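User: Here's a chain of 436 residues. Predict its fold as tokens.
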Amino acid sequence: MKRREPVKRDPLEAAIETALRPGQFIDWRMGSMFTSELDRVAAQIHQFVSTDPERAVSLYESLLAGCYEKAEEIDDDGYFGDFVEGLYCGWVKARQAAGADPDKTVSLLLDRMENDPYGYTFELEREAVKVLDTAGLSAFERAVRTLFEAKDKAGQARRRWGEVLRAIYARQQDVPAYVAVCHKTALSAEDCLVLAGMHQERKPDEALAWVERGLLLDKKTTNESYAGDDLAKLKRELLARLGRADVALAEAWAEFQKAPSKYRYEELMRFVPKAEVSLWHAKALDAAERGNLGSRIELLLETQEKERLVRCIQETSDSALESLSHYITEPAAELLADPHPELAARVFRAMGMRILCAKKSKYYHEALENFEDVKNCYARANLPKKWEAVVAQVCREHYRKVGFMPGFERLVAGQSPAQRLSYLERARKRWLPRGS
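Assistant: Prediction complete.
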């Protein structure tokens, strides 16, 4: 009997198998790190797309198969799904570089999109249309149009293939075909945004008409839509381009007044004439005083309005400061630490109290750092009594927090409560499982 020759494995398949960690469950804390390891393998495969595309195709297929096999062993928080979506795009590029039949590529892609048990190909068309070449995009359009027009395709299936056709026609910049699909399903505010974008460069007046139509549709819907803000922003751009900058400015100002923020401030100032920048800047800051506290502080930090920031902190109660995210309060405290240590101490105190009141034990080391900053700031301001008041409050309200109080007591006694951890040390302490 003739001896069968062993099948030769691609050397990179061993790296694929190692990176997939067969049999090991990947919980959500390790998802990003696990996907990073897979990214390195995928990068190696990508190098073969230009030099040995047939090998790249085979390796992409092996890695995709491995990912589906791994799906039951991972608590995916989105990283892994995004990675698999990227693999499909790499696989398409490799098949195109290898000269594969576009219809066959599309057939294989659609088969997976229709039969994906884990949903990794949901809305894959949005990225696939970006990597398909002209022949591939045409093949994709033909195949999907057949599915869309099939008599047995109704309801949800018809809507699904209609969405895929929209992605294709948007990529092809085929306005009539895109509109035709909308007529057969339903026109949405998102559709109007896409159609306005297609007309934006050559026919800004038609683009504006689509924007206005989209805004009307957006007002009628009860569901939250990302299109509303984007349509309003595009409308202002088109108005300015069509010589109606004064109308664009008026609309940007109305939006800012409804909900002042640093982002709407930036949008407002885009349409302000250069000679009026100072005037509108002052108007915006005055209007922001009537808005959300967190957004107001963010705006004052963004515009480096230190005097207004000082007044804002002075007028804000301790409880209101405690309600703010540390993403807002930390930059404010650091900015105020040297010129206004007493105010900085109040902000640092609010950061520490926010952690303690929320009972977030894994952040207690950060709370200790906040209270150390409180102590230092009150010392620079020569206000020891205020530090003593903070100590009394913490001891009275949080004495049962055994994970926090020993370090706090060392701080009060004049010792370092704990060695300050570096960013990576804090990250490892927070996210990596014990014993790793």
